[in-house]
Amino acid sequence: MFVTLINPPGTKSFSGLQMHVPNPPIGLAYIAAALKAAGIAYAMVDGAGAALDRVSPYPGRDDFLVQGLPLDEIVARIPPHTTVVGFGCMFSTLWPLTRMVAERVRAAFPDVLLVLGGEHGTAVPETVLRSSPFDVVVLGEGEETFVSLLDAHGRGAPLSEVKGIAFLSDDAMVDTGLSARRRTVDDIPLPDWDSLPIEDYISRHQMNGVNLGRSMPLLATRGCPYQCTFCSNPGMWTQRWIARDPRKVVDEIALYVAKYRVTNFDFQDLTAIVKRQWAIDFCNEIIARGLKITWQMPSGTRSETFDDEVADLLYRSGCRALAFAPESGDEALLAEVKKQVKLDKLLEAVRVALKRGLNLSCFFVIGFPGETDETMDRTLALVRRLAIMGVHDVSVTKFVPYPGSQLFQQLQQSGRIHLDDAFFVSPMDFYTQEAPSYSDNVSTSRLYWMMIWMFVNFYVLSGLTHPFRTLRILFKAVVYGKEETRYAKWFVDRIHTRRKWRKLQQQST
Question: The domain containing residue 259 runs over which residues?
């Protein structure tokens, strides 16, 4: 048996207010490590990382680019003795490209077992199996399940004996259910970054967070204990939050500092800080070892554990940027989408974080099915208040039903969603007028302009109330390339990165 793992090329969008870039595929790096630990021979083809400076037109969209290897070249790099090909697809926006590559793999290797892992397949396994050449979808946490699948396949055993997969049998989908979550997370082998062109990602800062120097992605916890109806987490990870031993996490940090000369870490956790004591122990471990690093939580974290002690330890341990996600300024709407956050407590956490000098972002979503003009007005009021308080950034996006979420399932059952390529890439249209409104009370046009108005309100008020901070941050970003905030990153992208990619696009055509 020989396994080839494939990371599809990235999708780059210049539409609207944000430029999307592919990040190192940490999920696939964990799968590679699990194969290595099991003694299974494998190769990695990173369709994005192997050619980060190459772009080509995206099929059917003139405002998207494909970043990475051309699809046929990905197939050409698969070793000829491959018997199993495994794809990672964490985000539905990558599904159309993933399927296109899989179709080419099937044509070139008609006898291999094609396997898809990641959140997209977990969310819509039957759609994947019926619309693509994939033979099996791995559901949920993948390391142990994929190894078990390979063992069964190698022995010629029936797939039905493998827990945590979906496949077709006599034109009916067989779903063996999610495998049990791995509780002993400290025994999971560290990601096999050596099988990926990680230096290319590092040197080009193809990372999720703001540019604080040479960076690596990191995962300190798995899962999330909450059940927001707009999130796909419950279907992928269940509601179990499992944290690694803080000492093990810091061991990994020290390893990467020595091996890859990195100075910053972007935590990819769904929500890293759930338990206060875990955060304290982790920060103290970094401080005790004298590691001179920075780290950030660009995906957001909970605010309930924040107090003066936690904020101080975060800063002293090197944390420089993090995000809270109030989502809305309307308490009733928050309850409706099961977002367990109390706005008064969140505002206190904001005050504490800012007082200690942490760069803070806040995430908002407008256009939930229950959204109204009144609920958006309350969100606008909160956005204005955060700007005056000194929050550095906000992200206001239009609601898009994530596959696998409760709201997605409700909208699908009501006939509001058609699962085609246009729908799967629709999150790339967050910041444009293309993304539709899913609220019966708010039109698509109204939603778009309210989103723009919230951005304008926040950044104008932020600039007026904190002018010297704003100028200092922009100066450091432009002159020294040090991005302390998301708006600095956006500003640099506008000045430098878009020009570079437009030139590459012209060369590609």
Answer: 207-400+435-465
